Amino acid sequence: MTMCKNELNTKALELKKELETKNIYVCFNDSSFRDYLVKIDIKQKGIFKETLYLYYKPSKQTYSLKKQIKNTELDALVDSIWNKLNSFETYDLQSGIYEAFVDGSYINGITGFASVIYLGDTIKAELYGTIENTQFRQFGGELKSVIETLKWCKQNNVKEIRINYDYIGIEKFATGKWQAKNELSLEYVDFIRKIDIKIQWRYIRSHTGNIKNSRADMLAKKATTI
Prior knowledge:
Layout: H1 5-20, E1 25-27, E2 33-34, E3 37-44, E4 47-57, E5 62-68, H2 72-85, E6 98-107, E7 110-119, E8 122-131, H3 138-155, E9 160-165, H4 169-175, H5 183-194, E10 198-203, H6 211-223
Parallel strand pairs: 6-9, 9-10
Antiparallel strand pairs: 1-3, 2-3, 3-4, 4-5, 6-7, 7-8
């Protein structure tokens, strides 16, 4: 019996329906399923030549999407549809609201941080580097990514930004739902309280196929190897 076939089939049908609203036609059948995976073929000009791989992780009840798409316009459109399906949509250019995708990493004793800042779908800045204090490992990188994002906003006269994160402490400490106790979290909370920028917070699970979130993850890891 194929593991998690029912969950995959339900999500694949949801994705198929959304894709077809944009005249993107796909196909999958019983032979397309493997344990925790379904392969979805995209038809272009009557030929199936692009492929999506939909994964399901039962321990976290999350889905992720990987693509083999050569057509860049189609690739971007599939990303947009996947984001909509999972409530990952970002503000458009006309809103004037910036988006930051932030992450931290700890590899081989080095703590990295990263933030990718967007206005609409345009990258306005990529901030990444390492921090000296590695005592708190990845936790330190997560908080540093927000601090550097807001410093950039201040320098560039950005009045409002939504910060997308995959570590819930980023928001919990900032809003006071979690009490800051160590030096690092206390410094973080103090910085957030003093900054005169309107901040929206949004949690996005890691490794769920959000390309913008994945880019921040990649840069945080890259920072630890430079």
